Amino acid sequence: MNMSVNIAGVELKNPITVASGTFGSGMEYSEFVDLNRLGAVTTKGVAIIPWPGNPTPRIAETYGGMMNAIGLQNPGIDVFVNRDIPFLKKYDTKIIVNVCGKSEDDYVECVRRLADVDVDLLEINVSCPNVKEGGIAFGQDPKALYSITEKVKAVAKQPVIMKLSPNVTDITEMAKAAEAAGSDAVSLINTLTGMKIDVNRRTFAVANKTAGVSGPAIHPIAVRMVYQVANAVNIPIIGMGGVATTEDALEMIMAGASAVAVGTANFNNPYVTVEIIDGIKEYMEKNGIEDINELIGCVK
Ligand SMILES: Cc1cc2nc3c(=O)[nH]c(=O)nc-3n(C[C@H](O)[C@H](O)[C@H](O)COP(=O)(O)O)c2cc1C
User: Fold this and answer.
1) 59 in helix, strand or coil?
2) What pLDDT is attached to residue 2?
3) pLDDT on residue 131
4) Does ligand 1 lie within 6 Å of residue 187's CB atom?
5) Among 190, 192, 218, residue to substitute to test ligand 1 (most atoms within 8 Å of Cβ)
6) Residue located nearest, by CA, to atom 26 of ligand 1
7) Of 50, 68, 226, 247, which residue is least crowded by CB atoms under 10 Å?
8) CA distance 240 to 15
9) 3-state secondary structure of 84
10) Which residues, given as ranges, of the chain have pLDDT below 70?
């Protein structure tokens, strides 16, 4: 039976990875999860310089999920490369480095810094506000997305995955812009912008006022967007958004995702990724599926 999948020339031993920002670089989780079992580890967003992130409170619970406005807190690329990469290199899993920035130059410098680092794929988080353009996220404007994709591709040595924002009218337009600018793959979805009010304090539950909604509540939206994007572009897709069970992951694959990232569900159950990998294997055995690739995009 074959469970391996291919993302832009990189072979993952199975289609399951983790969603950026929900798993650190796997250090804490390695007490619970054998990282060798994962198709890939996707790291928390890293930027060219360290950022402290947003004021607290930065998370809140909501029906069927959570909200966060961490604000891209990160130790900066130098600490990350010297501390986190050597840790991950001890494991037999692929490494996907998630990159964030506040300007095109930030992204380009960070990707340039990673060019000679031994990692497999770069995932570019374009849901960050573009400070030079009034704060609209790069991933909310097809022209800005095209431009940043092109600039990142010009310096990247690893294949590039542009991570799409769902906070748009038509996500296929964004996926097409990323593909046209040379992106090797796309991942989706990032969190959906929401708001929660703490009625007892009579203020926002999250200090940033708005926060990204994740978890099972957003899963059907994510499946719909993966399906739409799969029918709009020819590059591989990593699907994510509320995946918490084997069935959820299979939905993503059947909608057109070549790999699936598990995010918020790790907070409820640190073993969930391995349980899903075992669950997919069981599903394949039960249904006589020889190769996982037969399932990718099988629902038309
Ligand atoms: C606490 C938290 C931190 C996150 N940090 C990042 C990040 O640094 N970069 C990024 O691209 N996405 C980040 N995300 C978004 C997730 O990677 C994922 O796209 C989203 O949460 C949907 O998947 P889920 O419902 O399985 O969590 C974060 C999500 C959460 C909940």
Assistant:
1) strand
2) 98
3) 77
4) no
5) 190
6) 263
7) 247
8) 12
9) helix
10) none
